[in-house]
Amino acid sequence: DTAVSQTPKYLVTQMGNDKSIKCEQNLGHDTMYWYKQDSKKFLKIMFSYNNKELIINETVPNRFSPKSPDKAHLNLHINSLELGDSAVYFCASSQGPAGSYGYTFGSGTRLTVV
Amino acid sequence: AQSVAQPEDQVNVAEGNPLTVKCTYSVSGNPYLFWYVQYPNRGLQFLLKYITGDNLVKGSYGFEAEFNKSQTSFHLKKPSALVSDSALYFCAVRDKAAGNKLTFGGGTRVLVKP
């Protein structure tokens, strides 16, 4: 019973393709996040949703679009993939936007654009 | 904006010796500070947090961290390191003014040698 699960774990695709990464949490948390970890291991937030409402939208290209059909799911769709999109993408969740109890992270999706 | 800095890219320590991973923060108001650990090809795992109260915070796997307001530091410590502690460690701060997102430091790789 994985708390935050992401699929797929690995994704290799060609430039210009469109792809989606799915995330689901079974913790009953209200808030979900997408983070990008680059090749230097630097972590940067991309988006955050609280009860299906977008609350954080960092400066990311418009090609990235999050979708939250319900508070247990937060998917990430990427259009027209570029080489620079290659990274590990982490989904996370927390109880409430305050995140006072910390985040629970998924195991990541390693995206490789060739 | 809130930020944290981890001045060391890597820390090497012999097994059984004390381990310290440094973190300094820059926040306005009272800080919410966190430590996470990332093992290879895994997501981040929550170690401990400081919100208020005692300056010495105890967390998972025998780790603790000391909050020092005058030095704006939140160093992670373990009295006796294990080889299995070898991993990537991230300090993070909650940015209340920016949707309560967690902003991470650049990470410190810990290598514990037998």
Describe the structure.
- The complex is a heterodimer of chains A (114) and B (114).
- Chain A has 114 residues and is mostly beta strands.
- Chain A has strands at 4-7, 10-13, 19-25, 31-37, 43-50, 53-57, 64-70, 73-78, 87-94, 104-105, 109-113.
- In chain A, strands 2, 4, 5, 6, 9, 10 and 11 form a 7-stranded mixed sheet that branches. A 4-stranded antiparallel sheet of chain A has the order 1-3-8-7, with no helix packed on it.
- The model of chain A has no long low-confidence stretch (mean pLDDT 91).
- With 114 residues, chain B is mainly β.
- Helices cover 0% and strands 53% of the residues of chain B.
- Chain B is built from no helices and 12 strands.
- Chain B has strands spanning 3-5, 10-14, 19-21, 24-26, 33-38, 44-50, 56-58, 64-68, 73-78, 87-95, 101-104, 108-113.
- In chain B, strands 2, 5, 6, 10, 11 and 12 form a 6-stranded mixed sheet that branches. Chain B has a 4-stranded antiparallel sheet with strand order 3-9-8-7, with no helix packed on it. A two-stranded antiparallel sheet of chain B has the order 1-4.
- The interface between A and B is medium-sized, with 25 and 25 residues.
